[in-house]
Design goal:
Elements: H1 6-16, H2 20-23, E1 42-43, E2 52-57, E3 62-70, E4 73-76, H3 78-81, E5 89-93, E6 104-113, E7 127-131, E8 156-161, E9 176-183, H4 185-192, E10 201-204, E11 221-224, E12 227-234, E13 245-249, H5 250-261
Antiparallel strand pairs: 1-9, 2-3, 2-5, 3-4, 4-7, 5-6, 6-7, 8-9, 8-11, 9-10, 10-13, 11-12, 12-13
The chain binds arginine (ARG).
Length: 263
């Protein structure tokens, strides 16, 4: 159908090198250049979104996002943690700018990767990090397993991250955010065929494209009504017409996540 997507090449690079930040940009040669930031958003701050965490390497180079759900627990994507160890990763809170030095830096004492995870296009793309240092920031709540109604098509969702502001572009030094409508499962299946696993994924974006998460936004939140309901996972390019962003359907995994968060 659409063959090996850019994400898979990105994922391979993430596996090959723990220093994903620069190399994650190598993965996206496709169709038309997409218009704007996260793609199509506006600048924001970690004051506005205090639960928004940078996932970085040991040198504090950001390569993914994460969401603080308790003082010492961060929800992110499994694909962000492939090849990482508790010594290779840091979590940075309260830092709006990638080149900042402020905020709180924590080491990670445990990385839980969903044991069923193989590849983002197979689903199960969720991980929970346990921090060595408590984060003094307001946490986000996350959906419960029964809240499956939050993904009704057309519902407005918020995406947040430092990722590239166009398909082959560079990361944003300042945190960005945008809103995108939830796309129906049948429509997303039309876009992505069997790579879209409706039990594990939910899509969001405009039919005409233009607004989306992109490389480096992975692991960050998709909020619905201010509640963590998805995790940035994958997509064909970024912000392309007919190819919405794909997010982990968190209701499917909230029981697993809660076990980690409460452990
Ligand atoms: N896999 C990317 C990452 O690691 C996120 C891609 C999101 N793509 C999209 N079109 N929404 O940062």
């Amino acid at each position: 159908m659409f063959g090996i997507d850019p994400f898979k090449r990105t994922a391979a690079v993430l596996v090959a090198t723990a220093a994903a930040a620069a190399t994650a940009l190598l993965g996206a040669p496709t169709a038309v250049a997409a218009p704007q930031p996260i793609v199509g958003g506006t600048t924001t701050t970690t004051t506005a979104y205090p639960f928004m965490m940078q996932i970085t390497d040991a040198s504090q180079n950001q390569f993914c996002g994460g969401t603080l759900v308790s003082a010492t627990k961060v929800v992110t994507a499994a694909h962000c943690m492939v090849g990482e160890t508790t010594s290779s990763v840091r979590v940075v809170g309260g830092r709006t700018y990638l080149n900042g030095t402020n905020g709180t830096v924590s080491r990670v004492s445990k990385i839980w990767i969903n044991p069923d995870y193989t590849d983002a296009t197979n689903g199960d793309d969720v991980a929970v990090l346990t921090l060595s240092t408590s984060m003094p920031y307001t946490t986000a709540s996350y959906v419960t397993s029964s809240q499956t109604g939050v993904y009704a098509a057309g519902t407005t969702a918020r995406i947040i991250g430092w990722g590239t502001t166009s398909e082959n572009g560079s990361s944003s030094n300042q945190l960005r955010t945008a809103t995108v409508p939830i796309v129906s499962d049948s429509s997303c299946r039309s876009s992505y065929g069997s790579d879209f696993v409706a039990t594990d994924m939910v899509c969001a974006g405009y039919t005409s494209g233009g607004v989306d998460t992109c490389q480096g936004d992975s692991g960050g939140p998709l909020l619905i009504g201010g509640v963590l309901a998805g995790i940035t996972s994958w997509g064909e390019g970024c912000a392309e017409a007919g190819y919405p962003g794909v997010y982990t359907r968190l209701t499917t995994f909230s029981g697993l996540v809660a076990t980690q968060v409460n452990s």
